[in-house]
Design brief:
- With about 60 residues, the chain is α+β, with helices and mostly antiparallel strands.
- The chain has one domain (about 1-55).
- It contains one helix and two strands; from the N terminus they run αββ.
């Protein structure tokens, strides 16, 4: 999970808008094309997007 989140943040150039965050500190972001994450393109599936939601908590 951490690896795919890191790739997602790299696609967004590690920049998130203020409205990506909730008041309690959790955040979310979206990627429009999965190939931006380095996932191989499969013509039978086409292009799809991904949404990431991160819930922060204490161990």
């Amino acid at each position: 999970a951490e690896e795919i989140l890191e790739h997602g943040l790299k696609v967004r150039e590690f920049e998130l808008r203020r409205d990506n965050f909730w008041a309690i500190g959790n955040f979310g972001l979206g990627i429009q094309e999965h190939i931006d994450l380095g996932i191989k393109y499969d013509p039978s599936i086409s292009i799809y997007g991904l949404d990431f939601y991160v819930v922060l908590g204490r161990p």
